[in-house]
Specification:
This protein is α+β, with helices and mostly antiparallel strands. Helices cover 32% and strands 34% of the residues. The protein folds into two domains: 98 residues, no CATH class; 186 residues, Rossmann fold, CATH 3.40.50. A hairpin with a 2-residue loop joins strand 7 and strand 8. Helix 4 packs across helix 8.
């Protein structure tokens, strides 16, 4: 069996496969880019030692099947591709990270020195645009994009994705960033960042006065708990061209601890809804740092 290790922060997924094409695909540039975009602090190693947290065994078969027995998964099927394997590896590592009390949030993060503000929101809500504006203006650093790893109990950002797609609308807003494509922010810094606030932005061009609404702890918990829960429960985790749904990896103990860690986090970290121009929202974020 050929062995490849996919790593995320302090955990790894030991991938064993006897499909040469899959091994070459996992070590290709396309897979490396996929990992940097979708697996926080992700790396691909060609070989791995013993002691990996989770493992994934892949072999050829005339039929497609998945044997789910965490921390080891066995996958058979002639139509498995590298993105299936990488997505499943990230799913396994999400469980392993939560066992270590590290949680993954859909967000961008900006920092100044050792403090940061998390910009959380739905797709196209302005997370990347605000972080780009701050980086280009020199007010703040662009720390993570799309996925952020948070130690909730200690209120620290400990990792995240550092590759982002520069879309057409980003380029129209900020022509100085150059051509449309991928912007590589480099490796995650070798330190942690204290979380000062979470901001949920709504960009409203032309709004003369910034609208700021601080949510109470119960409201913030109501919004954030599903975000920290959906990935470990595999809400949309499917394989074989989206035809095979995977089982949840959550447990009662993990879910209770996740909720307790989130409550501990929200005691000291405020959650704001902020609506206005990009420059004004950035100004509010900078004020929190």
């Amino acid at each position: 069996m050929i062995r490849v290790q996919i790593c995320s922060l302090m955990v790894g997924c030991d991938v064993c496969t006897d499909i040469p094409d899959l091994e070459r695909s996992l070590l290709s540039e396309d897979s490396i880019v996929f990992v940097r975009k979708y697996i926080p602090n992700g790396k691909i190693l060609q070989c791995c030692g013993d002691g990996s947290d989770v493992s994934l065994v892949i072999s050829k078969s005339n039929k497609q099947s998945v044997v789910e027995d965490y921390p080891s998964f066995q996958v058979q099927g002639p139509e498995i591709d590298s993105k299936d394997v990488l997505a499943l590896s990230e799913y396994l590592m999400e469980r392993a990270r939560q066992e270590k009390r590290v949680y993954n949030l859909h967000s961008s993060t900006v920092n100044r020195d050792d403090s940061c503000v998390i910009i959380h929101g739905a797709s196209r809500s302005g997370k990347t645009a605000i972080a780009l504006y701050g980086m280009l203006s020199g007010d703040i650093e662009f720390l993570t994009n799309e996925r952020t790893l948070i130690d909730l109990k200690r209120k620290r950002v400990v990792g995240g994705c550092r590759l982002l797609d520069v879309q057409k609308y980003h380029h129209e807003m900020f022509p100085q960033i150059g051509s449309i494509g991928a912007l590589n922010l480099g490796d995650f810094p070798d330190r942690e960042f204290e979380v000062r606030a979470i901001v949920y932005p709504s960009i409203d061009t032309g709004l003369k006065q910034l609208i700021i609404e601080e949510r109470d702890m119960a409201s913030a918990e109501w919004l954030l708990y599903p975000e920290f829960t959906s990935r470990i429960r595999g809400v949309n985790r499917r394989m074989f061209n989206l035809t095979y749904p995977l089982d949840s990896l959550d447990t009662k103990d993990l879910s209770r601890r996740r909720l307790a860690d989130l409550d501990t986090f929200l005691v000291d970290v405020p959650f704001y809804f902020v609506r206005g121009e990009v420059e004004d929202i950035l100004g509010f974020i900078v004020s929190q740092l």
